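> call design_seq(struct)
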């Protein structure tokens, strides 16, 4: 299943100028493949010089905008494709897999990620008052939408601050608020709104997601998790799957396996030790589930990764 097709309308002249400047800023502040933190804590720059097949990763709530190239993100069996015409938003933390489609050393894939602080989103909604955001049935915690001049301009002004560091402390928070405001007022802003409004069922599911991210190595008892976020077990299951495309148990499994992979790569742990660290008691079960997610058992997967570096 894929994200809905959007009409193939090119950027107008002004937006193409904005896109080219954003690409130039990302290009100047990155050097090789990777994700780069910046002096603006919410802003990350990404550069890829070669295509990359689907790579599992846990993403935090964020706005993702491409300045050049295209990407696909897979959530369970759904594909979300985006490019400079369309932006991608994650309203909750998601275990997904990303693929770089177009990239060369001469024409790298360049993008920005702006992390979304749920607390700032909630404060903005409280301060702005009724915003006319429509109420809709619970839907995926990520979406693709067409970019417009106002949002692209705000993102570009935030990126420009990297060239005037003395202005970051004063102006970055203001521009970040504007970006959140424009996302909320966008055609699919209700997806962010329903997550941020305290005591809504979607907000309670986001709290369950937050709990799982902080306690993924613990045995998961659905009854206890439902009580933790003040939902019935059936409502938690239904709403959780509507937002993440997976059950809480499947979500936890993705978290565990991705963290185990990180531990083996970054800390040099053996597979059995990494599996135990993230909550697996059976090495054989860990190896089976790892193979399903990453396409190979731990040792073979790590060897493949090292060859690609």
């Amino acid at each position: 299943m894929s994200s809905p097709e959007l009409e193939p309308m090119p950027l107008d002249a002004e937006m193409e100028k904005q896109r080219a400047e954003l690409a130039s800023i990302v290009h100047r502040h990155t050097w090789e493949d990777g994700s780069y933190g910046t002096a603006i804590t919410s802003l990350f720059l990404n550069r890829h010089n070669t295509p990359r097949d689907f790579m599992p990763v846990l993403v935090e709530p964020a706005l993702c905008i491409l300045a050049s190239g295209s990407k696909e993100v897979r959530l369970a069996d759904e594909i979300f494709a985006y490019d400079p015409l369309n932006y991608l938003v994650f309203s909750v933390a998601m275990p997904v897999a990303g693929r770089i489609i177009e990239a060369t050393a001469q024409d790298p894939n360049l993008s920005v990620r702006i992390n979304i602080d749920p607390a700032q989103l909630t404060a903005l909604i409280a301060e702005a008052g009724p915003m006319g955001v429509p109420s809709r049935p619970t839907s995926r915690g990520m979406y693709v939408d067409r970019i417009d001049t106002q949002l692209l301009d705000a993102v570009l002004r935030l990126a420009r601050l990297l060239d005037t560091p003395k202005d970051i402390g004063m102006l970055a928070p203001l521009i970040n608020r504007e970006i959140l405001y424009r996302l909320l007022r966008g055609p699919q802003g209700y997806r962010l709104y329903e997550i941020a409004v305290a005591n809504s069922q979607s907000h309670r599911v986001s709290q369950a997601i937050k709990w799982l991210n902080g306690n993924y190595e613990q045995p998961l008892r659905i009854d206890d998790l439902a009580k933790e976020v003040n939902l019935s077990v059936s409502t938690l299951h239904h709403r959780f799957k509507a937002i993440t495309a997976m059950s809480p148990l499947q979500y936890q499994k993705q978290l565990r396996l991705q963290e185990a992979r990180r531990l083996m790569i970054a800390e040099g742990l053996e597979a059995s030790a990494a599996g135990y660290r993230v909550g697996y008691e059976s090495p054989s079960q860990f190896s089976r589930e790892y193979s399903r997610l990453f396409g190979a058992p731990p040792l073979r997967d790590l060897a493949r990764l090292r060859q690609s570096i």
